């Protein structure tokens, strides 16, 4: 049996991308169906968040049903579970169309045996679920003489009672070793011991970096061959480092930029990507004290830059960039002088993790996490270790010193 696995399509949401002609609210779904037909798969599995929200139902219904019927006409079975985004709207399809089989409606584990393969699934009963679904898992579902595939929309590593997205203990899911688990919820694809997150087939905004697509599964006796990731998204967001040095000037910085972009694009091309590559730039390296990147390289000018690589990839930097360059300064010589610059240089030389300033910054970070703005991020927000705080302080101090030297303070 051949299977195409995907999740987090979010039909009804238009991806937030610079070139809006590259994707509509249904483009990812259309691409999945085309891939299923091209691969001649037997089954398409959907691990939740296929529809974006309740109010996207009317927009999603027509395209969703049309393509489901198309798959049905080609004898491709569609098996799905509901996620937190489509807990209410997606199950309606189970009542209105025989072109899809929904598993685990109402938050109850369920299975379907199809052509010698057992599919196990659990669906969100509502948009929020704070209990590990495996608390009520029936191990009898694993009593099957053949390959098993599990479908679940969940938050691996999330804490029961604090995560709203079906928190699952990683040790628990990995101890149920018989099935391969096809998971939804996380928009970046990744794999574990016996599970994989499909990721979103199309990047929905610039925060969703790297490749996006679907997974191809091929049966191997009573098990599965290693899953194969298939890139589907015609655009890609990446972080690109642009290393500078003390030879960098206002006249030649553009050459450093072009070289870094082309090198990064060449690496991406080797992965088989074809399309538009949007790069968030981070400038690094040691530069001369009077080299002021922000006055030389305006963000609005970067927006107009486009580079073609072998007519396969078009590279476009994102307008805003991050300046992590450091200045070439002899702190020891500077610290021997007098005045504010000497005092700052001396402090940078003597700063360590036991410094009172490090602890003050750490306490500020702790108190910030207690403010209402951070409540939604509470399960992910972590106070940085002293070594990281020290690095942040040093960076800030070096930026201040650079500004003082440039102004002749």
CATH topology group of the largest domain = Purple Acid Phosphatase, chain A, domain 2
* Biggest sheet architecture: 7 strands, mixed
Number of strands: 22
What class do helices, strands and sheet pairing give?
A: alpha/beta
Q: Write down the overall mean pLDDT.
A: 91
- CATH top level label of the largest domain: Alpha Beta
Portion in helices: 25-40%
Tally of DSSP helical segments: 11
Q: Report the C-alpha radius of gyration, rounded.
A: 26 Å
Short note summarizing the structure:
The protein has 409 residues and is α/β, with parallel strands linked by helices.
Write the layout of secondary structure elements.
Blueprint: E1 2-6, H1 27-39, E2 43-47, H2 57-73, E3 77-81, H3 92-96, E4 101-102, E5 110-114, E6 117-122, E7 148-153, E8 155-156, E9 167-168, H4 170-175, E10 180-184, E11 190-191, E12 195-197, E13 213-220, E14 223-224, E15 228-231, E16 235-243, H5 253-269, E17 275-284, E18 286-287, H6 293-296, H7 299-302, E19 307-309, E20 313-317, E21 322-323, E22 326-327, H8 331-335, H9 340-350, H10 356-368, H11 386-407
Parallel strand pairs: 1-2, 2-3, 3-4, 6-7, 7-10, 8-9, 10-12, 16-17, 17-20, 17-21, 18-22
Antiparallel strand pairs: 1-13, 5-6, 11-12, 13-14, 13-15, 19-20
Helix pairs in contact: 1-2, 9-11, 10-11
Q: Can you put this structure into words, describing what you see?
A:
This protein has 409 residues and is α/β, with parallel strands linked by helices. Helices cover 29% and strands 23% of the residues. It is built from 11 helices and 22 strands. Helix 3 links the parallel strand 3 (77-81) and strand 4. Helix 1 (27-39) packs parallel to helix 2 (57-73), helix 9 (340-350) runs antiparallel to helix 11 and helix 10 crosses helix 11. The protein starts with a strand and ends with a helix.
